[in-house]
């Protein structure tokens, strides 16, 4: 009898197994919704699928009467702009800081403990400080995401730099490589795949910080809209927005994974 660790599903079987939890979740929701609505037609906790379709039609395809904007895409654009700017800044800090700390012992001794301490500070705990110092505008929201994500990326990238074989670095120096060439031509190219992995791992946290910042001080955004309608228990709005955030996050993760495989095929594990 084959061991479970040696059993591999076919491509179709893998797709079916992957879809199964989603189908179970959808079936459970439909069953629970039907049961609650049969008992109370005005129940707001588990709206019927038709309510979701009405929300999607209203928010994604019709202009808001007050603002004249299509709220779904207004919120999506505002949130994605903040998130992408913050991730771009975090990636830059991560690759520069990770390379410096991982490649240069003096820099590692100087900044390593400081970055490790920053990574342990709960970002949401300093959110009031950011709003006081930077105001309630876009800068504070982006700064929160950067503060929560960048130190973790720096640590992850620097650890990868420290894992490189010592023999490789010694050979490069034997061939006359300076510290600059060693860092940029030997170490840096091997850090790019790890940077993408670090971005993927911190993507969920970045969305969390974004939603938190938008919920407290914003006039548009996915998090703002969710917390705006919660006072009305508008689950027909909240759930579609949560699903949409999940789709956006999953798509970003998928794009990063595909980019890593395309740009750095030598780093892919078989």
Largest sheet: none
Question: What is the C-level CATH assignment of the largest domain?
Answer: Mainly Alpha
What is the helix/strand order?
Answer: HHHHHHHHHHH
Mean pLDDT: 90
The structure class reads mainly alpha
Compute the number of helices: 11
DSSP E strands, number: 0
Relevant CATH superfamily of the largest domain: MetI-like
Helix percent band: over 70%
| CATH architecture classification name of the largest domain | Orthogonal Bundle
In angstroms, what is the radius of gyration? 23 Å
- Counted up, domains total 2
Shape: globular
Instruction: Indicate the proportion of strand residues.
Output: under 5%
CATH topology of the largest domain: MetI-like fold
CA-to-CA gap between the ends? Answer: 26 Å
- Which runs of at least 5 residues are low in confidence (pLDDT < 50)? none
């Amino acid at each position: 009898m084959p061991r479970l660790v040696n059993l591999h599903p076919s491509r179709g079987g893998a797709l079916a197994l992957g879809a199964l939890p989603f189908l179970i979740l959808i079936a459970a929701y439909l069953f629970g919704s039907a049961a609650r609505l049969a008992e109370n037609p005005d129940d707001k906790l588990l709206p019927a699928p038709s309510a979701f379709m009405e929300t999607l039609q209203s928010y994604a395809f019709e202009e808001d009467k007050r603002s004249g904007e299509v709220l779904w895409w207004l919120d999506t654009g505002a949130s994605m702009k903040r998130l992408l700017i913050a991730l771009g800044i975090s990636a830059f800090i991560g690759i520069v800081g990770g390379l410096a700390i991982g490649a240069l012992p003096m820099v590692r001794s100087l900044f390593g403990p400081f970055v490790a301490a920053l990574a342990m500070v709960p970002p949401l705990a300093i959110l009031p400080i950011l709003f006081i110092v930077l105001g309630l505008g876009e800068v504070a929201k982006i700064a929160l995401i950067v503060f929560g994500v960048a130190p973790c990326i720096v640590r992850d990238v620097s650890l990868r730099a420290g894992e490189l074989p010592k023999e490789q670095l010694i050979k490069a120096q034997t061939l006359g490589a300076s510290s600059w060439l060693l860092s940029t031509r030997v170490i840096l190219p091997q850090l790019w795949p790890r940077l993408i992995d670090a971005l993927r791992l911190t993507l969920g946290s970045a969305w969390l910080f974004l939603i938190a910042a938008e919920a407290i001080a914003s006039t548009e955004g996915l998090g703002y809209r969710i917390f705006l309608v919660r006072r009305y228990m508008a689950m027909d709005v909240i759930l579609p927005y949560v699903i949409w955030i999940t789709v956006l996050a999953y798509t970003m993760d998928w794009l990063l994974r595909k980019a890593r495989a395309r740009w750095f095929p030598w780093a892919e594990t078989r």
